[in-house]
Amino acid sequence: MLQAVLQPGGDGATALYIVAFSLFIIGIKRGTHPTTAKQGNLVAAVGMAVAVVTTLLLDGIGNWGLIALGLGIGTAVGVIASVRVQMTEMPQMVALYNGVGGGAVALIAWSEIRHGISLGETIPLDTLIPILFAAVVGSVSFWGSNIAFAKLQDLIPTKPLAVPGQQVINAVLLIGIIAGCVSIAVGNDDPSQLTFIAILIAAGLLGNLVVLPIGGADMPVVISLLNAFTGLSAAAAGFALDNVALIVAGTLVGSSGTILTMEMATAMNRSVANVLFAGFGGAPSGGAAGSAETRPHVSIGAQDAAIKLAYADTVVIVPGYGLAVAQAQHAIKEVGDELEKRGVTVNYAIHPVAGRMPGHMNVLLAEADVPYEQLKEMEEINPEMARTDVAVVVGANDVTNPAAKNDPDSPIAGMPIIEVNQAQQVIVIKRSMSPGFAGIDNDLFYEPNTSMLFDDAKKAAADIAAEIQNL
Amino acid sequence: MSLMTEITILVLAAFVGFEVISKVPTTLHTPLMSQTNAIHGIVMLGGLIVVGYANDPLEYIIGTIAIAFGAINIVGGFMVTDRMLGMFSKKPKPKADAEKKGGS
Description:
The structure holds two protein chains of two kinds. Chain A is an alpha/beta fold. In chain A, 58% of the residues lie in helices and 7% in strands. Chain A has three domains: 1-84; 90-277, no CATH class; 290-470, TPP-binding domain (Rossmann fold). Residues 91-104 of chain B have low confidence and may be disordered.
């Protein structure tokens, strides 16, 4: 069998762990720039390989059959899932991977406490407290991420699900979890495993209940937050196991994940607390949406849209959530190509939270081979809008609503928007007049220079591309 | 390692994490989240360690599942991130992509 060459906590192992987490830091740093991001990911992956090999060489590592089994199953599942996943399904994949990470932490904590109990000695608090922390946060993260996955995968309704007395139930669960942890910590000479399992279950329930009421469009923030939580729980497991690699890597993810979460929330004009504790906009402003049917709007077909586009000089395409759902990125690229063949300047305006996650729309369009230079960020494209002949809004709604700028009473007041209403003409491709995620009416649809094309984004784009070819 | 040494490491690592991430273009939010997500797969090391001193069937099962979960987190996380970022790299109009388009 393999000869253990490194002592846990010894100089050799620690030196290798230092190499590993240095690579993580370099990897994350490179991940913040478009040109180095891909390389950064590889650097971090190499760091992970170093950390894993180092650990396998530690004295005391055994049960090789089980290790091989776990590694084999995990690797196979990870590879197959990553290769087969559709680009549009990436966000829920991240949620799922985050969940299993949290699950691993909770299981390790459970195994640790069983081990401590079986030794029959008092478990020191500086081991026990991290174990409890890891168990609670890991379990919350596991179940919360699974709910996030289920919502994004449309396995359960994506709209906010309100349970009556929600806050009270959550508070009771939280108090129960804390009480259980205290009781274990106080009785650390002989901790009750049953109490520990009860804590795991209560934390799991809490994870479910916290994420269930959150709507699909807020899910990115939640996944990012849970990602940071899992990092912290991994660091806690590092304290329990006296493993410096876990402490550093877990903390890195915890802190960088927190910053990322806040950046995402800011881009959506939401606070993290708001996302977690309130449905969007609090009470639904039903009155405004109710009058939607009566206000006049212009409806056109694919041929009219094609003509407007083909004879424009500059066109800006504004993709949104609806494009991601309809997987219309290839079809819309066809429209762009046809227009470019006719000498029309085509750009894509990407709202920071377009798609299902920040940056997700860029990934989808890049997959459809839209050149990187044509992807314009919101700040970059808004000054160009007044010089734009036609803006095409594909499956986006709230991020184009001028009420965010004009109406201080609107629930989305102050949210940054793509100012398509500045363009000479606007074509909105949408399935119906139904309001977007914010549940409010979009004034844009009733502007005199706005034309509505009611259809599925993919089909509409394909029809328009065909019509342009026929011109 | 003493507890205080470990806490020192934790605090410093937290600041490194804060600093390293500041001002990320929105475009990279999702890939970067995915990459840090893969990095917390490091918990698999904990699984490898606890399975080493597991000594009853339930602990074998818990440990093995923990390792499998950690491995999914690591392998899947880095691969998905790579796929996302691969989409950003320039490519000269590949034909394979056009075929894939037709198939989906």
